[in-house]
From TrEMBL:
<feature type="domain" description="N-acetyltransferase">
    <location>
        <begin position="1"/>
        <end position="155"/>
    </location>
</feature>
<dbReference type="InterPro" id="IPR016181">
    <property type="entry name" value="Acyl_CoA_acyltransferase"/>
</dbReference>
<dbReference type="InterPro" id="IPR051531">
    <property type="entry name" value="N-acetyltransferase"/>
</dbReference>
<dbReference type="Pfam" id="PF13302">
    <property type="entry name" value="Acetyltransf_3"/>
</dbReference>
<dbReference type="InterPro" id="IPR000182">
    <property type="entry name" value="GNAT_dom"/>
</dbReference>
<protein>
    <submittedName>
        <fullName>GNAT family N-acetyltransferase</fullName>
    </submittedName>
</protein>
């Protein structure tokens, strides 16, 4: 999946098997440290791996950190089926109900219209003044400019139920 140029078009590349394995190792360590990460997504009932969706601590300096972000990466064959939105909702539910997070953000290249639509469908709000230049992306890279979306627990549709902490 991470070798598919269409999947990685709006993401920082993982050009080798080693870099892809390092991304998986990072997820395992993040889960161990924080109790959450980008989780593997499988189709039911086949169990076919189709991508990763979940929560991560934002680990770069920005005007909105420290915070937790929701994100997704799905195989191209699964695009347009609502899987990112469905799994993203589950990640938000976990973050708000289980972790008691006050806010969850999402960000993507301002050219990544698919992900920006998912953020909107998740009920996240976009304020252009929040957009930022990603500090880990070169100035000349079209992925540098990022749109930031936010969702506060109090604005999440599931707020009728208190956190389960």
């Amino acid at each position: 999946m991470s070798a598919d140029p269409a999947v990685m078009q709006h993401l920082r590349p993982l050009p080798t098997r080693e870099s892809s394995d390092a991304w998986v190792d990072f997820q395992i360590e993040h889960q161990s440290t924080h109790g959450f990460c980008m989780w593997a997504v499988e189709l039911s009932p086949s169990g076919t791996f189709v991508g990763a969706v979940g929560l991560l601590v934002v680990n770069f300096p920005a005007h909105f950190t420290p915070t937790v972000e929701v994100g997704w990466r799905l195989a191209r064959a699964c695009w347009g089926q609502g899987l990112a939105t469905e799994a993203g909702r589950k990640a938000l539910e976990f973050g708000f109900r289980e972790l008691g997070l006050p806010e969850i953000v999402a960000h993507a290249s301002d050219h990544n219209t698919r992900s920006l639509r998912v953020m909107s469908r998740l009920g996240m709000s976009h304020y252009p003044a929040d957009d930022f230049d990603h500090p880990r992306v070169k100035e000349s890279d079209p992925l540098r400019r990022q749109a930031l979306y936010r969702l506060k627990r109090n604005d999440w549709p599931g707020t009728a139920e208190p956190p389960r902490r």
